[in-house]
Request: fold
Amino acid sequence: MIKVFKLPDLGEGLTESEIVAWLVAPGDEVTLNQHIADVETAKAVVELPSPFAGVVRELHQPAGVVVHVGEPIVSFQIGAADEPTDSSPTTDAPAPAVAAAEQREANLVGYGPAVERGGHPQRRARRGAGDASRPAAPVESSAAAPATALVAPSTAPPTAAVTAAPVEPSAAPSTGDRPRSTPPVRALARDLGIDLTLVTGTGKDGLITRDDVHARVTEAMPTPDLHGAVPPAATAARPATSGDHLSETRSPIKSLRKLTAAAMVQSAFTAPHVTEFLTIDVTPTVELLASLRADRQLADAGIGILAVVAKALCLAVGRTPSVNTRWDEPAGEIVQFHHVNLGVAAATPRGLLVPNIVDAERLDLRGLAAALAELTKSARAGTTTPAALAGGTITITNIGVFGVDAGTPIVNPGEAAILAIGAIRSRPWEYHGQVALRQVLTLSVSFDHRLVDGEQGSRFLADIGTILADPARVLTMI
Reply:
């Protein structure tokens, strides 16, 4: 029997994901829950487990292609080869919300369980016996065109269940008179202004390849006249060049960048932003960090300025709760959070991620330092789970690591405030009535003025500054 596995509902409002890499090929035997592919959503890269035990019959999509929920991605041979194809609804369409959540919990390895109050989200152990060294399926090289384009959402009805007849993995099914080509090749043709109906495919069964598109670009370039002029109509058919080099390069708006852009636009044009700045002498905090590093019991804790600022923020939130709220427009309510899920902006090769530390207010400096180290490691390795990216209540961003003194950060949607930490610099500063060289830091906080008044935002920022300028003052605030 042929079982067709379609991209499941990943939740969190995500309707598509990109197949980063296949870890199996047609003919491979897999076990239940074996890691068969890496799938990248707009929020994280997750491991996709096999929902069946059997033999891989067909990969419907090559690596580097964006697939929408409900589209077939792989077929399995279960049992005898002469049994009919199973087209049951369980693999045809996403289940209802509750069933989908149960399916995600059971099947999406690395997706992580729902975050429960009072603890940290735990990374799920990898299930199955997938061999990471197994070669990927033979598809058109994704190294030549890594994820070249997003596929526009389809308005056509869901694809019918496939039959037992094998299909070439790299060949996209033809639709009507549309030339046969893969999504990356179609994206390349769009970028170069090439009409695929004018291209002759040299691939198997007439499949149009990238080389065919590039060859068409060359053919479309007319011979210059005696003065070296090229007709204007021909310039759109080739990439812009400057001498022997391309003057521009186009790349698709990837899922994470698209999600980040949408969130920032929504926040900037929905929430009235106010940004305030505070420059302070943090020499006492710098000296405190030096003493902690010299302490034999804390030397390996990795406590740095970010952990100290994070602790100061949590204490300041307790004194100004309005910065830890959410504006619920549909309900006409202001949601007051009684816990601090501290989001930490992390720059990664994929783009900006904001995973959060659950119940950060309950952690001491050592605990915050450990949580920050694990969060950063996971973000850079691309193993952050979607659960760790959801549920933040307030955010902190350390722009000082880039040598930047201050900025005007945009509040994450669903939150009321974001704190930016600038670079610590040695500057002349007034100290006990004299000018001395001190360690100076600028903090900036942006807040949603619907939720936070100027007085509240100022007090929140001043409290953080007071703690950093004189850590002993914490004793008067708790």
